[in-house]
Batch of 4 targets.
Target 1
Amino acid sequence: MPALRVLVVDDSEDDALLDVLALRRQGYEIEYERVDTAEDMRQRLNKAQWDVVLSDFSMPNFSAIEALQIFQEGSFPIPFIVVTGTIGEESAVAMMKAGVNDFVLKTHLKRLPTVVERELRESDTRAAKFRAEAALRESQERYELAITGANDGLWDWNIRDNTIYLSPRWKAMLGYTEDELQNIPSESWLALAHPDEVPLLRAKLVQHMKGESPHFEAEHRMCHKDGNWRWMLTRGIALIDPETQQAYRMAGSLTDITERKRAEEQLLYDALHDGLTGLANRALFTDFLGFSLGHSQRDPNYLCAVLCLNLERFRYINDSFGHGIGDQILKITAERLASVRRGGDVVARFGGDEFAILLDDIDDANDAKLFTEQMLTEVAKPIHVEGHEVYPGARVGIALSSSGYTHPEEMIRDADTAMHRAKSQGRAKYEIFDRAMHGTMLRALKMEQEIRRALDSHEFLPFYQPIVDLCSGKVAAFEALVRWKKATGELVSPAEFIPLAEELGLINQIGQQMLQMACAQISTWQKDFPAEALQISVNLSGKQFNQPDLVDQVDRAVAEAGIDAQFLELEITESILMENTDAIVEMLQRFRERGIRILMDDFGTGYSSLSYLHRFPSNVLKIDGSFVRRMGDDTGSHEIVRTIVLLGHNLGMKVIAEGVETFEQYSMLKSMDCDYAQGYHIAKPMPADQATTFITQRNLGL
């Protein structure tokens, strides 16, 4: 991630730090300054170049509204994002129309990096908008300066005899010749105006002729001779008879402002739509959802739903094929979503691979489920781009208005929470939000804080489970399994923190610490047991392979421990290989070149195992424990294990059987000529000191 210079408008240093931490959490290098007064903000804006402005909405002596006004004075082509605790619907809509790029609730700061990344990617678009707006302002000024020039039409209304003179230029702008529209009555002029705007024109004319306004000015549409409507700016001033105080003459100009109006409409469209797909953006979606929630409060029988969805493996697609292919997939996905929506529904893109759908006026939750299933079927169809076939797929979270929402952002937040639940569960393609998920989200936030603190305190420790040679019965290696031992002595199950750590990207730091400690332990055992040649295997998460410096991390850990790389083993699951095959295979080859052995864990549980196995540079297969545990009762499992052993040996690979829990299983594996065994029958995972004792007792018989 690049370095970012962030100007934070907030009266609380703590809140500013939370904003910064949310960005650093995603890998940004942050330089920031905090301001909380108008004077300080002007000074900082003009003295330094910033990449983004983050502003609180309401402060004791300042506000986001004032901050936005100061920001807009300088026409800075950077994002202005409001980060706030709460904000009313009307205020939010007003701020978006005034120029705020997006809102992030302080209770949902995990959205901040995504919003910032999206807005930075669209900075060129914003810069273009600023240039367009500047050109538009310049154009308006030219029109004002040239009001009496030859390019404007002139008109002169003799009120006493009710005839209007129209100049040749006035007529030409509406497609008429000089001979047409000669001294027409005022009613004929008004007949050319758009019917919807005639009442306002009459009211403004009367107001000015009564002396209640200094001049007459109106923007309105007029019918061109070809039948099309043109936007016009009509200006004029009346002459008043001093004796009767009645207007007797009025003259002015006509300016064609059609192009300016089109530019304004385009700017408004751009402010409310996604530039890549043309779908509604978050601001417009939130407006529509606000209307729907208002309807639900007036009509207890009305029900709507919000669907939040993320594409699966989109990051891998971008990394593998580039952003050009990624953008094509986003466009195709947008078209597919738009094709399945019903009348009254709204489809939006929030940024990146985040989409949302507002289902209007549904009967019950089953309607939302049925629509979601149909939509997912459409989205999952293969996409062919530049010779590649991609299967995007999606995970969806659903929130229903029956939960009594009053603020659109709350409903969007809960749909997003349900979507993340669907992603973390890995089973269902969609989840419907319930209140229990809110509690789960809060617990996850607390767990995140504790994980970060535990990383700083080095509370994550490797526990070592022995792997024994089935021929000799001696310990040949250990698998390093991460355990979280809190300062209180409490052990936290990996099932509780690993999924969250992977979602947050913190698994990379945990994995790095495990790697360093495992290498240090290898060094210790080499000194204590020089004749044993003990190896330690370390698990690598799929997230760790997203790090371009993973090989360098392993090299540093080996060098710092002063060990031979052949005593280090790296375990991966076959499902990881399916994510980004070519890139991961290349990385594994580099490990093999260093003498590091590669273990394929959980073999037999993935897909396309046999057809892909020959491509991957593995040294060892680890048979999944689910097959081993069923060997005594299930003939099929017994044959699967025997087949994997034979397959591994035929490919020149060693085989380890996991999950060995009984002597019977141990004996059966030995009879199959399986090389190694691991499981509770041999020993549970244990701290390093206990593992040292185990080696002494098992291998040395002391």
Note: The two ends are 53 Å apart (CA to CA).
Target 2
Amino acid sequence: MKSIRPALVLAGWVAGEHILYKRLRAHARLLLGVAVLLMAAFVAALIWIGPGEVAWLPALLSTSVALVLGMGWWYERRGSARQEVPLNQAAEVNDPSSESGEWASTAIAVADHHALVLAQQRHSESELRFRALLESLPKVAVQGYDSRRRVIYWNHASTQLYGYLPEEAHGQLLEDLIIPDYMQEGVVAAHHDWIEKGIEIPAAELELKSKSGMPVAVFSQHLMLAEHSDDPLMFCVDVDLSEQKEARRELEYVTRYDALTQLPNRHTFERELQEFIVAAQRHGEYLAVLFVDLDRFAEINDAKGYEQGDLLLSMVAKRLRYCQRGSDLLSRFGSDEFVLAFPHLRAGNDVLQLVEKVLDSFSRPFLLDGREVHVTASLGVSLYPDNGTNARELIHNADAAKNRAKLSAPNRCWFFNQKIHDELMHQHRLAERLQLALAEQELSLHYQPQVSAMSGRIENLEALVRWYPKEGGAISPAEFIPVAERSQLIHRIGEWVIREACRQQAEWKKQGLGGARVDINLSGKQLAMANTFHHLEACMGEFGLTPQDIGIELTENVLIEAEEHILNTLRDLYHRGMKIAIDDFGTGYSSLSYLKLFPVTSLKIDRSFVRDAPKDPSDRAIMAAAVFIGHRLGLEVIAEGVENEEQLELVREMKCDLVQGYYFFKPMSATDTTRLLTGLVGGQPRIVS
């Protein structure tokens, strides 16, 4: 029997090692499987939720960590319990009455001892690895608390997040460390309810406090271990949300404020204005909305560059802030548009003083690139409750009034009224109809002859666009041309006019009736388009015309505002023999110095002077001066709007070269003009149509 004792001992030790190895391997596999499942679930959740839902990531991460903690603790406790069973069983098997039982029990005891030592060693190594894992999580703060909420565990991330070192935190109460004063009573009650009643503390976003007293944004998940024992432990897994909170704040700022001027944007302004309207309604007060639009900002931006343009906008915003009272609102709506709201007005006319203050803020020049720049603005005003009952109505109507101010003159202010609104709606509908008119060929060209003041001979024809809708009567050019310029339809209309005038002139030349030049009116909007002159030359080439067959008419304001490359193109046409007339002379800037600089051949004296000159000495003097200057500069002088014998005698007396007006001819269709040109023979007698 003694010979088999070593074998029995060895067998018992090997058996014990094998049994322990199988248990630990099974536990390891189970833990590994749980960990893999958690990671797979975490990745799947990321894919399903999508990267945009960043608010869920802390919840998933903290839940995963909490589950791993719980599983680790559970298996640790379970393994310890299992380690006790073989020892108890060994005591029961150790029967001293049997020698073989004695040696068998000895072998089992030795095997269990070795197994216990190995298990304790591996448990220690596992605990060290687990602690190392917790310490390595940079953004996940893990703390452990006993049943009295005193700290028993505090990882490195907790130190980074809350500022307390582990030795400072150990033994301290949870509520005294990181819980703000207003939350402490609730936290203590929630912990008590979990221990006593089993009511778990839900995961949530919280704002706790650091050692310095600063707020700390976290997503906090809680786990209770040994919940039904005498010494339950609570672990908190806090994920740092400071970066997410900062990103949210930045996103909120971007969505609410203008990045350049730091002013509220349109959405924020509308919301706050609506709140003011509710208060004004409750207290029976007035409220004013002031829409500010900088005049000719695009030109300043182009001339000075975008950086200087942004600097100008920032300076304008600063000046408008000085116009605010304590409760007033100020917002930047667009590139050069600002809107103010003035609440708590006792009467509608209280806004006048505020408007004057805003206008006065533009009286001083702005310093850009080392030079003073004078900037003006057009203002529109709407009042609550007269011009609207909600924020959008008031803003829209102030904008409409601003547009009217912009059309009248720079640095002007208009107050909204229903008449303006009705007119704007009419213009909007007119623009829609005009777009259809182009597609349905409702536009046509009429021609008004310019005749010699002395002989009545037809020298030139001015092409004038007319609109005859298929339904309804004719629409005056004075009504639809301004609408076309505001809606950008003027470019399409202008191209059509150029082509149709060239086509008709070519047709008359083919019939032997092309002795009279055809003049085309070009607006400032058309000249701003780079292809206008290219289109003119292309049409002339297509129909075989020369610069002597087509002339152009421009207002003096258009010439003065024209850029240098436009003037160079006009000079080229001038030297090639094209006639260039200044239309409505005397109604624009009326600066005579530009006459020697611009390539013009004719002056057309505006009909307002011709109409009143026979009875008004001032108009007669202006006419006489214009004719004298024009002739001294070698220019042809044309009198517009001659309608009676008295006016004709006056322009003849002043020695005007050509006459245009109803006294001789009204504008007529191409067919009637062809008939007129065909029937004229000899001295061409005066014909009144």
Note: Confidence is low (pLDDT under 50) at residues 1-55, 77-98, 681-689.
Target 3
Amino acid sequence: MLTELSRESAANRRPGADIVSQALASNRLGVSSVVFFAVAGAAPLTVIIGAISTVYAVVGNTALPLVYVVVAAILTIFTVGFVAMSRHIVNSGAFYSYISHGLGRELGVAAAFVALPAYALMQIGLFGLFGVVSSSIFAALGLSVPWVACALVAWALIAVLGMLWVDLSGKVLGVLLVAEIAVVVVYDLVMVANPREGVVSLATLNPAQLLTPEVVAMMVLAIGGFAGFEATVVLSEEAKDPKRTISRATHLAVLLAGLMCALSAWAMSVAAGPGQIVAEAQREETNLVFSLVGPHVPNIMITIGYLLFMTSIFAALLAFHAAVSRYQFALGRERMLPSRWGYTHPRTGAPIVGSITQSVLSLVAILAYWFTGADPLVQLFGYLTVVGGLGVLILMWGTSASVIAFFVQHPRLENIWRGRIAPIIAFFLLSIILFATVVGLGDVLGLSPDSIFNWAFAAGYAVLALLGAGWAAIIRYTRPDVYAVIGRGVERRTVFEIPEEPRPHSHAMAFQSHYPSDSRDLR
């Protein structure tokens, strides 16, 4: 089959012919810009103001600072194998591409069918939070602005920025993120400098708390605060020196997000008092941080905090929009989606069709929630981001398995720690967290025990994965040329070059040396 395919391809195009309709804008992003995209996706200020207060209030356990440290450690171990694979595979398809290399093309397309709705749901859900927060800020200024109007303004800005140069978006995110981190640091210092009990307490850092039964549930909630760091590899084709840039940016993104969340969770317990932090969180909810720092800082600092809370959400919207549109580009480039999705803007290099598609879907969802009168905070933000986060966790779990498989096939590419030990540990730990997430998803969403949605979302992802694998199987027999390049298209060329006059003794060696991972599954 491969011989026939190669001869047909060689007859119709030159060696190394382009399989990409248009190329993304290459050599645009340095380490700092990629970190901005990744950390902005994790939205640290949004997590600190919203998620940490919620976990304290809902779970009622004070081990949260340590839980964030543990989750950051787990994701750091996952990142070891993840970025090791990024040094050998540069593809904006990220999880889709990695899984197709490690576990086969069918499972790779299955991952793509999970990734598209997962990232789309997370981005769309954030419009609900942005609308509510912005509306409340205007209300404090004496203006009555409906949440949908605020959401539509953000939507318009995201739609425009998504079509422009990726480094421009990186600069916007950089400004917003630096200001966001500065406020987080100031708030943390203020809270630690003003302890409730008159002395800085380390009680919430006691490792014995990790043995309590609530810790697993807290880890399920905490891991959602890191969603977005993995988007570094989505930008790999637009990065400067991607093999180094993506590795450094991914490690920095995990460490920065984990450090900020852990320190802020501890600082909040110091300011409220370890024994009172749960009650304070239940009373103040998302206003907890502002109530703790309010008595000790000028009002302007609280106002800035609210404004940066809003811009933090906007930064996450922009980061997830970039991730979704590039996933669509990768699939269009390799014709798993219609080829138009593989087009980029002729001047900016942005994935134009993918960006427009995500903008249209977002607009439809915003207007649908508004027309139906649904709660934008609970039913738009809460439901969609949690369900999207479940999809991202599934992708991380599948990718950790694919990293193991990839380096088992190619053991000489990395040392035993990066290629074997770290990926196996990550797979084991992520399996536990994924199982706990699927089992406890209904509790996270606040559903009744008999609700169909306790299991419907996980089942929905399973169905999507089966559809993706089935579609790849159909492509294998109906369009073998398309099947051959699933997850392989980078740098505007095919993954293997076809000599004009193949020589029996050199063809196999040339093929394997050009892309050794395909020697197994292209038979």
Note: The two ends are 7 Å apart (CA to CA).
Target 4
Amino acid sequence: MPAPDFDAIIIGAGMSGMYQLIRLRQLGLKARVFETGSGVGGTWYWNRYPGARFDSESYSYGFSFDKELLQEWSWSEHFAPQPETERYLNFVADKYDLRRDIQFNSRVTAAEWDEASLTWTVTLEGGAKHSARFLITAIGALSAPTLPNYPGMESFQGRAFHTAHWPKEPISFAGKRVAVIGTGATGVQTIQEVAKDVGHLTVLQRTPNWCAPLHNRKITPEEQAQIKASYDEIFRRCEETFSCFLHTPDPRATFEVSQAEREEFWEKLYNSPGFGIWVGNFRDMLTDRTANAEMSAFVANKIRQRVKDPKVAEMLIPTNHGFGTRRVPLETRYYEVYNQPNVELVDTRATPITEVTPTGLKTAEREFEFDIIIYATGFDALTGAFDRIDFRGTGGRTLKEAWAGGARSFVGMMVPGFPNMFMLLGPHTALGNIPRSIEYNVDWVSRLLGHMQAAGKQRAEAGEKGTAAWMAHVMDCARGLLSMEVDSWMTGVNRNVAGKQQRVVARYTGSAPAYREWCEEVAADGYREVALA
């Protein structure tokens, strides 16, 4: 039987694929990365829409594994924009000479396990096939963009694009009539940037989201020196917090303090940079209905203060979910955009979009003409990128079949019936500040592969017992969370994707330290819950 082409194949050259390649080389394994795009960066390669940037503090987001790299790179802003992040990831690719093991413009369409040879065969678009002992998916949690299903979308004669498929060349909005469909995190970032020089902007909103100020600014030379001297402390803090951000829940409950103290605390959070207002709020804000209602009322009043037209302000205040129960977009003068005379907000729940026309689109009430339509309609999250590849495990069973009743995994990184396949950002891994999760997951997979090397093992598969225990833990973590009562990508709902209209426990909602503790116990126990052969 011929030897496989590689020891390991990695799908995707974003942050997780890049770091996994570095770790595989350290293990002495021959690896190849297949990447759909023409460059490294994953999320930061594809999402080049106007306004795209971090909402994690830059210095908490980059790789932490190399102290030399930390000193060599300087972030220019507290929350870096997409072009800078893409430059950073190319800098990393250059420093570690990663491109020699990456094959670009190579979309993986299928991956099939062969039990006889204990290898995976990966098929690329165009038909080329490559084999490896191990298959590692580095395809991201938010990497499968979705478009709505409006009649006539192909007929539009202007320019139209999804934010995740943004052109590489600059787009001018000066004097143009522009539509942005969607007001999630991507839509908010796009809208506030397009509005700066647009001829006329129409925002078509189905569901308003609770947004909070980002408070971004340049990093001063003094701050830069302090950051570089404090990296050990910064990353230790990220290891300790619930979601790997620099912020973590306040130990107090909402009603343990007086109303005046609550208001003062919330004012401080609202005027502080980053996600503190979401993940650094009172500890019961996301579990106690009354506490959440108080916080929601506070933010609603902020919106009313910032938007001059009371009718428009009310359109921008969510009524179907409380603050923080969906992902909170961070913004820079987003609400002030609606005070501009050349910006109009349309409620598509009241007047749904009925069709796209050659010159624009129609709602149930009226017709619009546009030069550019921007679809900020999000992603088929968590499992969408997996659904777009035909994974086949033991007995030819597809991953889609295995997950038909909802995704099941072992610690979010392995699936029973899919030996030697590892998911770096599979469902049920700790999310939050994603690169912190990426580094841990890559290291965990790499340690398992090193353990297999030392023990002379060729095959690793998640056991049913361990998977059942892990999924029970995932379910336990979700109980009592107000977010589980809300339709969002975090509960597996996407109106643009068939079969994703019912809420499920789509993600791990426990703390990152608790996640790592579980994974460390698995490793310390000699991977007893993983069948090694």
Note: Residues 409 and 415 are 5 Å apart (CA to CA).
